Amino acid sequence: MPYPADTPTYIPKNTFIKYVDDYIECFAIHPRYLTVVESSTYDFNGKYWSIMAHDMAKCKIVNYRAKFLVVASGENSVENIPVIPGLENFPGVAIHSSCYKSGIDYSGRNVLVIGSGNSGMEIAYDLASHGANTSIIIRSPIHVMTKELIRLGMTLVHYLPLKMIDGLLLMMANAVFGDLSRHGITRPEKGPFVLKSETGRSAVIDVGTIGLIKKDKIKVHGRITKIKGKTIEFEGGKEASFDAIVFATGYKSTTNSWLKNDEDMLNSDGVPKKEFPNHWKGANGLYSAGLGRRGLAGIAMDAKNIANDIKRSIDSMCS
């Protein structure tokens, strides 16, 4: 179901919500809202999946039985906060990025953002724009792009090899941002599109953060070694005092907490054992969609593969 013809390239929130609502209506999908899956186990005698779910609206447990079970709960289920010596005694505010609302609450305060993905970079920009004394930790090499460069790359993917696209984008990014190594930002060895295809790691789409880093309005630090009260010590012995920490350190899957009998499909981290593109099918009618770390395009591939495989299974049962 394509977007309406007059949809802009960068879709506003309300337009996207309307699209999802229209999609549900068009295909007669019946979501079970306010329902939490507590366990899913395979009944080897009955040859079906038994899913116990908590209907919070009606305060009751519901049991679903299914020949096929598709795990599409995503890689990012709960907040991931790293273990840092001394964090438990930090007297200031320490929150995950999922709880962050606006930099207006931190004006004039010393704030450290941990994590330099898109969330971390955008939060750092928002904090600095609202008058916070902002620092960000950038430990790993990252690609910094504009949204226009990413769009160009996504267009060229249909016509050119990824390495050729990466070479072009890196040359253009150099022209836009210059050498960022002097500001503590280095690039990975592999280009942005090759890296995305192999690891699922996305480039950072700059919203103005790089400009503030260059002007020293956002300070860049390396790895934390320990926290002593409000004082945070970084690699190399440098120290600084902070009133708040925002952890833009991503999320992790909780699939293994409720899905049982999935030994052939998922590892201990709740992601597929098999490499892309052969990761989406398990045993006994079990599938996973969107766990292959390949973005929206990968999710679309998973969905089509799963639907076609289920159709073949049903057709074979009926013949």
Quaternary organisation of the protein chains? single chain
CATH architectural type of the largest domain: 3-Layer(bba) Sandwich
- Helical segment count: 8
Structural class: alpha/beta
* CATH-level-4 superfamily name of the largest domain: FAD/NAD(P)-binding domain
**Termini gap:** 31 Å
Major beta-sheet overview: 5 strands, parallel
Order of helices and strands: HEEEEEEEHEEHHHEHEEEEEEHEH
Number of DSSP strands?
17
Gross morphology is: globular
Supply Rg. 23 Å
Range of strand content: 15-25%
The pLDDT mean sits at 94
CATH topology call of the largest domain: FAD/NAD(P)-binding domain
Describe the structure.
- It catalyses: indole-3-pyruvate + NADPH + O2 + H(+) = (indol-3-yl)acetate + CO2 + NADP(+) + H2O.
- Keywords: FAD, Flavoprotein, Monooxygenase, Oxidoreductase.
- It is an enzyme of class 1 (oxidoreductase).
- The protein contains 8 helices and 17 strands.
- The two termini are 31 Å apart.
- The protein is of the alpha/beta class and 319 residues long.
- The protein has 2 domains: 32-76 and 253-318, FAD/NAD(P)-binding domain (3-Layer(bba) Sandwich), CATH 3.50.50.60; 92-251, 3-Layer(bba) Sandwich (FAD/NAD(P)-binding domain).
- β1 and β2 (48-55) form a beta hairpin.
- The longest helix has 24 residues, at 295-318.
Summary of the model, kept short:
29% of the residues lie in helices and 23% in strands. The protein has helices at residues 13-26, 118-129, 147-156, 162-177, 192-199, 209-214, 255-258, 295-318, and strands at 35-43, 48-55, 60-66, 69-71, 78-79, 93-96, 110-114, 133-137, 144-145, 204-205, 218-221, 224-228, 231-234, 239-241, 244-247, 251-252, 286-288.
